[in-house]
Specification:
mainly alpha, Recoverin, domain 1, 3 domains, two-stranded antiparallel ribbon
């Protein structure tokens, strides 16, 4: 009887919500991952980069054929996939920006050699520094440091050294953080109460074990406060205190995971 009551408490939050409601919530989170530029739509390029969609697969999402996927279209399509027995796959996160490729000596001449003498003087170097937006650089200091032959201009190998000096430091691409199943699915969410006079417990938006559903405050143990919180507004055949007392073998007033597992064997 007590075991039955425990399972009723554990599963009651999940039973009050349609599985497709949980799919919709997960799909909304995935939509945000796929919307790389944050404009509220998923373009074909974003869908290809984040989800690997081709034109045909993109069209299956884009029901109104406007060339972009709205949040509503995304959720509807993901629900349809799950209803047919498919699974939701998390889109790739947008990679961190990489530094622009460094300019070569030839690039610098093409852009800044105003008098076409195949060299850069101090006035031309001023444009180089201004364009680089590096406030620590000085045209005079660059000329002094790099002008090895003292002719007041940079050319040949001196330009190669200038290009190396101006090369931006590459920003490392931060890998997307790995998320555990608990981080992905065991997330308590506030529940909209259908009865304004009774507050209902938070629910878990995704698959998780019975112990986690019973451990309402996620402190690693099930105690009286957890069960009282989770049973509202239900009335169980066994009292929460009786459940805890029955399964609490070491008498510390709470049910550990080992005690819970032992009770269900």
């Amino acid at each position: 009887m007590l075991h039955t009551a425990l399972i009723l408490v554990a599963l009651a939050p999940a039973q009050r919500n349609s599985p497709l409601d949980e799919v919709a919530e997960t799909a909304q989170a995935y939509f945000a991952l796929a919307d790389w530029n944050g404009d509220g739509w998923i373009s074909f390029k974003e869908s290809a980069d984040s989800m690997g969609l081709d034109r045909q697969a993109f069209a299956a999402f884009d029901s109104d054929r406007d060339g972009r996927i709205s949040l509503e279209e995304f959720v509807v399509r993901q629900k349809a996939i799950v209803e047919r027995g498919g699974v939701l796959e998390a889109p790739r996160r947008k990679p961190a920006r990489q530094a622009a490729p460094a300019r070569t000596a030839a690039d610098l001449l093409a852009l800044f050699d105003e008098d076409r003498d195949s060299a850069l003087g101090e006035r031309e170097l001023a444009r180089v520094v201004d364009e680089s937006k590096n406030k620590e650089l000085s045209p005079a200091a660059l000329l002094s440091a790099l002008d090895k032959d003292g002719d007041k201009r940079l050319h040949g190998e001196e330009l190669n050294r200038l290009a190396a000096t101006l090369a931006p430091a590459a920003e490392p691409i931060a890998p997307a953080p790995k998320m555990t199943l608990a981080q992905l699915f065991e997330v308590p969410l506030p529940r909209e109460s259908r009865n304004t006079g009774s507050r209902e417990p938070a629910r878990i938006a995704g698959p998780c074990g019975d112990f986690r559903r019973l451990d309402a405050d996620n402190d690693g143990n099930i105690d009286l406060r957890d069960l009282v919180e989770l049973q509202r507004p239900l009335v169980l055949p066994a009292s929460p205190q009786a459940i805890v007392s029955s399964l609490d073998k070491d008498g510390d007033g709470r049910i550990s995971r080992d005690e819970f597992d032992a009770a269900l064997r």
